[in-house]
Every structure is written in structure tokens, then in C-alpha cells.
């Protein structure tokens, strides 16, 4: 049985994630990752043939980890329960996974998404389509299907919870454990309100 590689993919991506945390996506270069991981540049190039491939792998690893949990979170019996669970997941997952959450506070464009290899851009689109379908199903289950309603659903279960995450991370504060409860309550209030403003 052979020895495991000294500098595996996850170890190199962990080093890249630390660079993002310290100085943002622009700090991630093959040479910088090699230095941070204590690896020769050749080891990085062996796994990531170019900087765009490295950036794609870093972004997609964080995104797919988040999306896997999100899709589990929305799998509830009632659409409002799905919305609450989704909002809670955004905050709770971010607190439990600070390195990945820091990466996702940026946008794919910050990781030069237009230059990614074709297969990575397709992975990105495929994952986003899955999440968009799940969000759309929540909206349809709540009878919210207009363009405005779709914006409200996304705001309630993604944008507002992420604003909580962003505020704490950008100020250097740890996300408090009650934050996901508040995110879930806000989602329920926003999406459970009828047009009269009465929560149902």
C-alpha cells in the first residue's frame, strides 16, 4: 500500500483558503499556494494546471459543500418549514465552516469565473440550477410566483441570512449561536405574511 501524497488537493486548497482569508482572492497564485502549503510549485501544477483551474477548484469546493447542506435543509414537509430551515442553514453552516464561508462572501467573478475550464463552469451552473429549483419550489409552495415574489423568497432565505454572516465576518466577530434562530424567524415572518401583512 503506497503512501498518501504529501500535498493532496484538499491540503493545497486549504492553503489557498487561508490566503483568501488574509488578503482576498487576488492573493491566490500558484506560487503563493505552494509557499503557504510548503510544497513545490510542481505539486500545485500537477493538480491544478493553471491559476483559473486552482481558483475554480477552491470556489467550487466551498460552494458545493454549502449547496449539499442547503438542499438537505430545504427538504421539509411544508414550504414555510423549508424556508425557515434554509435560512437557518445559511447562518449555522457559515459559523461552523468559517474558511468556506469567507470564500463565499465573495462572488464567483472575484475568482475569475469567466476564465475557468469549461467543465468547472458547467459544474458551477449545474449546482446553481439545483439551488434555484429548490428556491423556486419553496416559492411555488407558498403561492409566491410573481417576479416580485421570487425576489422576496430569495431575500428571505438567502440574502438576509448572508447579510448576518457578512456583518459578523467583516467585523471580525464570531457569529452568535442565536443568529440562525433569528434568521429563521425573519424568513417565516417575511414569507408567512399575506398581502395584508398578517402572519398566517
Could you characterize the architecture of this molecule?
The protein is an all-alpha fold and 200 residues long. It contains nine helices and no strands. The chain is elongated and about 55 Å long. The C terminus is likely disordered.
Attribute tags:
200 residues, mainly alpha, 70% helix, 0% strand, elongated
The arrangement of helices and strands along the chain is HHHHHHHHH
Total count of helical runs of at least 4 residues: 9
Terminus-to-terminus distance: 61 Å
Strand content: under 5%
User: What is the molecular shape?
Assistant: elongated
Report the average pLDDT across residues.
92
Share of helical residues: over 70%
* Number of extended strands: 0
Structural class, by secondary structure, is: mainly alpha
Question: How big is the Rg?
Answer: 19 Å
Q: Could you give a short account of the major beta sheet? A: none
Any low-confidence stretches, pLDDT <50, length ≥5? 194-200
Oligomer designation: single chain
Question: Could you write a compact summary of the structure shown?
Answer:
This protein has 200 residues and is mainly alpha-helical.
SSE blueprint:
Elements: H1 9-23, H2 30-37, H3 41-47, H4 51-73, H5 79-96, H6 98-104, H7 118-141, H8 147-170, H9 179-192
